[in-house]
Amino acid sequence: MKKSLATVLSGFMLVGSLFAFGCGSAKSDVIKVGVAVPLTGASAEDGNAIKNGVNLAVKEINAKGGINNKKVELVITDDKGDPSEAATVANKLAQDKSVLAIVGHFNSSCTLAAAPIYNQAGVVSVSPGSSAAAVTKAGPYTFRVITTDAVQGASLMDWAVKDLGYKNIAVLYENTDYGTGLAEVVTKTAGKLNAKIVAEEAYEVGATDFSTALTKVANSKADVIIVGGLYNETALIAKQKNNFGLEKMQIMGVDAIYSDALLKLGGAAAEGIKMTGYFSEVSKDPVSQNFVAKYNEEYKKAPSTYAAYGYDAALVIFESIKNGGTDRKAICDFMTKLKGLKGATGVNTFDENGDVIKQPLRLIIKDGKFVVTEK
C-alpha cells in the first residue's frame, strides 16, 4: 500500500486494447459476479467479513430460484489490500466477459487503482468499503454502498462539536487514502464550526505503539480524540491513553471501527467509544434484522459493519441484473437509476456520481455492545 497511486495506474493504462470487444454480455446458465477484497494482509478480517456477507446474499437469492431463473456464482479474488494486486485482480475480472459485475474493492487505494480498468472494460464495481473522496470521480462504472468521508466526517463533527460541545479536537489517523481523507474532512469541518485542531498525528496501518501521538494529545488539552482508522488501532489507542492521564478522554470515529474486534481487543477501555455508522445489530429494521439473524445462523457470530456492506453491495448488483439483464452496460444503466433499495445498512439510492445517499446512525459502545444513541 506504500506504492504511489500514480505508479500503479500508469502500469495499467494500456489495458484499453484488451477491451476492444465492447462492454460485453454473458450467455450462460449461471450468473457470475466477481468479488475483489483483501482475504489476506492487514485488512483480511474486513475482507473476509465482506465475502461472508456476499455469500449470504447469494445463498438467499439462489434459495429463491436465483435471478431470472439463473443461479448466481461468485468468482472470488484476493487483492491483499494492495493497489498493485488490485489492478492485477481487476484485469482478470474485467477480461472475463462472463463476470457481469464486481463487489469490490475494500480499500480506497485499491478501488482507485482498479477503477480505470473496470471503467475501460465497461463493467460495474460496487465498493463495500471505499469512502475516500477521490472515488466520487473514479468513473461512471464505479459505485459504492458506503458514504463518502465528507458525509461521515461532517456528521461526526456536527455531533462532536454542536451536540457534545467539544471545541479542541485531536485527530489520529492512519496514513492511507482513507485516513488522510477523513482527517482532511474533520479539519475542514472544524474550521466551519469554530472548533480547533489542537493535535494531529498520522500512524501506519498495523501500528502498536501510540506513545508519541498520545503524548501530543495529553499536552494539547484536547477535549476529544477523533480516530481516522480501523478497529485494531482504535482499541490500542483506547487502552494506551490511560497511561497518559487520558482516562476520561472521549474517543469518536466512523463506521470503520464498528467490529467485534474492537470490543474484544479494547475490552473495558472500549466502553463509551462513539461512532457514526449505518449498521446496528439491534436495528429494528426488518431487512437488517433478517440479515443479522441469518448471518448468526450461518457463521455462528455477529456480523461486522463490512459484512453488512458486502451484503448490500450484492443486493444492489442482483437488483440491477434482475432488471437490466446480462449486458454489462445495461446493468450500469439500471444502477444509475436505482432508488430506495433497502439493505442491512439502510436505503440505497445513488447520485449521479455513483455515491450512495444515506443518513448515518449515532452509535455508542455500552455494556460491551454497539447500541444506538441520541447523545
Structural class from helices and strands? Answer: alpha/beta
What is the name of the CATH superfamily of the largest domain?
Response regulator
Strands ordered across the widest β-sheet: 7-6-8-9-10-13-14
Assembly of the depicted chains: single chain
CATH topology of the largest domain: Rossmann fold
SSE arrangement:
Elements: H1 5-10, E1 30-37, H2 44-63, E2 71-78, H3 83-95, E3 99-104, H4 108-121, E4 124-127, E5 142-144, H5 149-163, E6 168-174, H6 177-192, E7 196-203, H7 211-220, E8 224-228, H8 231-240, E9 250-253, H9 260-266, E10 274-277, H10 286-299, H11 305-324, H12 328-337, E11 341-343, E12 346-348, E13 361-366, E14 369-372
Parallel strand pairs: 1-2, 1-3, 3-4, 4-5, 6-7, 6-8, 8-9, 9-10
Antiparallel strand pairs: 10-13, 11-12, 13-14
Helix pairs in contact: 2-11, 3-4, 5-6, 8-9, 11-12
